[in-house]
Amino acid sequence: MSAVDEPDWERLEHQARQALPSAYAPYSRFGVAACVLAEDGRSFVGVNVENASYGLTVCAERNAVAAAVIAGVRRLVAAVVVCTGPEPPTPCGACRQVLWEFGTELAVRSVGASGHVLHFELAALLPAAFGPEQLSPSD
């Protein structure tokens, strides 16, 4: 895991849970928070922000990645996603693709309100991922 050996999953989950009450989910009532870990050990949180025009909703994972990018991070090694629902939330397809951009070997932990935990490697969540290697060089 680069500069970070094994992520401190408890710390990351705690940070995500601290952010969870800030989720803006007036339509689904399904709050989600995420905490991403940069290879330098810094962590960044995000929450889902819903919109009356549902397609404009932004997921917690993408907001956490955006916070990391603002801080200059370009490489992530782990992510924790927590929610208000009982079952562990896995990142949606768009979030999986955004996470892939910043960490193809990213470890993902999802935790539901029931305490049930799932662990994944991002590659298992996004098989045959699209990345920069698929883009043809410009002439």
Give a structural overview.
The chain has helices at residues 9-19, 60-70, 93-102, 122-125; strands at 32-38, 43-47, 76-83, 107-111, 117-121. The chain is of the alpha+beta class and 139 residues long. The chain has one domain (9-126): Cytidine Deaminase, domain 2 (3-Layer(aba) Sandwich), CATH 3.40.140. The chain has a 5-stranded mixed sheet with strand order 2-1-3-4-5. The relative contact order is 0.17.
β-strand number: 5
How many structural domains does the protein architecture include? 1
**What structural class is derived from the secondary structure elements?**
alpha+beta
Largest sheet descriptor = 5 strands, mixed
Helix-strand pattern: HEEHEHEEH
The CATH topology? Cytidine Deaminase, domain 2
Percent helix: 25-40%
Number of helices: 4
Using the CA coordinates, give the radius of gyration. Answer: 15 Å
| Level-2 CATH architecture | 3-Layer(aba) Sandwich
Q: State the CATH class.
A: Alpha Beta
Portion in strands: 15-25%
Q: Looking at the structure, what is the overall shape?
A: globular
Give the low-pLDDT segments: none
- From the N-terminal CA to the C-terminal CA, the straight-line distance is 35 Å
In the sheet with the most strands, the strands line up as 2-1-3-4-5
Looking at this structure, what is the CATH superfamily? Cytidine Deaminase, domain 2
